Each structure stands twice: as C-alpha cells, then as structure tokens.
Amino acid sequence: MKKLIALLLALALSAALTVSFADQLSEAQARGSLIFATEGNWAPWTYYGDDGARAGFDIEVAEAVAAKLGLKAEFIDVEWSGIFAGIDVGRYTTAANGVDVTEDRAAKYDFTTPYCYNRVALVVRSDNESITSFADLNGKVTTNSPGSTYAQIGESFGAKVMEVEALAETMNMVINGRADATINAIDSFNDYMSQQPDAPLKIAAVSEDSTPVAFPIRKGDSETLVAAINKAIEELRADGTLAEISMKYFGYDITAE
Predict the structure, then answer these.
(1) Residues 65 and 233: beta-carbon distance below 8 Å
(2) Strand partners of residue 212
(3) I need a surface site. Which of 3, 32, 116, 196 has the fewest CB within 10 A?
C-alpha cells in the first residue's frame, strides 16, 4: 500500500510539473483559446460598435489567427497601463491592441511576425501654428495613454505628457486647449475625423518611418507559440485575409511595410 501511495504521489507530482512547465502553446491548446488583452476604446483597432458587439482591425486579426491554430479568441478589456503587467503574470496570452515593436519591449517580450505597420501622426488644433514638427514639442504638453509608445515619443522630444486612457479623450484635451498636441496612429486619427468631421484638429507632422505592430508574448516557453502564430500570420497575409481586414477598417492596406 505504501508503495502504491508513493507511486501515486510521484505521478501526481510529475503531472503537476508537466502543467507548470508546459510551453505556452500547449497551455493554450489545453484551454482551447488564446486570451487577448485589448482596450476596447481605440477605434478602428479595437472598440464596440453601435450594436454593442466588439469590433476592430485587431479583433478580427486576432480571431483569424486563433482560428488558424484551431483555437477560440478570448478578449479581456483592460486599460493600456495594465496590458503588459497582465501578460507578465500569464493573465493574458498576448495583446490585440496595435502594440508597436520597440527596442525596450523586444528586450522583455518575444514578438511575433508583424501583422501590420503603423505611422505616427502629431495632432494639434487646426489654429495652432506653433507646432509644425515633433521637434516643436519641447516645453509643450501632449496627452496620451500612460506607458504608450506615443507618450514616450512626446517625452523624447521634451514634452510634458498628461496621461489619459481613451483616444477620444486625448482629442478633446487638444480641442479644449488643455494639451498642445497628441501623438497617435495616423489611422486612428483618420477614423476619428471620419466620425467627427467638424473637429478643429489637424495633423502637424507624420513620422518618416513606419513601425511594425505585432503580438507580444511573455518570454519563457514561448518558442512554439510564437512559431505557430507566425505561421498563421504568414498564411493570412498570403491568402489576402490581412489586407481584406485592413481595407474594411482603414480603407487601405496597412499590412504591408
């Protein structure tokens, strides 16, 4: 009996260790889903439509990727400031939220193949003549989500950043004169203006280079998951699905560099 109990304990310990150290793809397969963190308030990337249903470029790309892996896409709404912390502790598999690949992030996370490319716009009030380039931000006030690439860009040019979470709120801050400018994806600004054509805003400058956007994965046992997602992205690019989703939400293709 003692030998049987010892054997059962050993098997249980072995199983526990297997689960604890399973690679992230196996964990997702066992769960049946990829869990994506997303803001849900950043159109046209991730938002809720008039019918209350989740929508957006990132949402449909994430769903298509998960389907290629034979999995379901689960989404959890979270403020931008909590996305990476949630990935760190395994609450989310990754993020579907237009995450730019930066040097600092690449040092901490394993990024998949880019699924689109982003250009950054510097947005000011339409009557603002003092800001015509990113260099003019020195000593000015910008507004963006805390910890975002856009906030970091503002700081790098000497701006003081007022932190807010939602895209519409950043635009209102500029319109109301509480901030001199906001920095955001040019695609998001274009979508905002299509919804608010009378908003007194304009683009003062656009970044020269595009930035790759990809899915960040927690380092550690991530190799098989990254490889699987990379394969899915390439298949979706090859069969035209990525371009089709881009055309639906942006009116042009942002999936090619």
Answers:
(1) yes
(2) 117
(3) 3
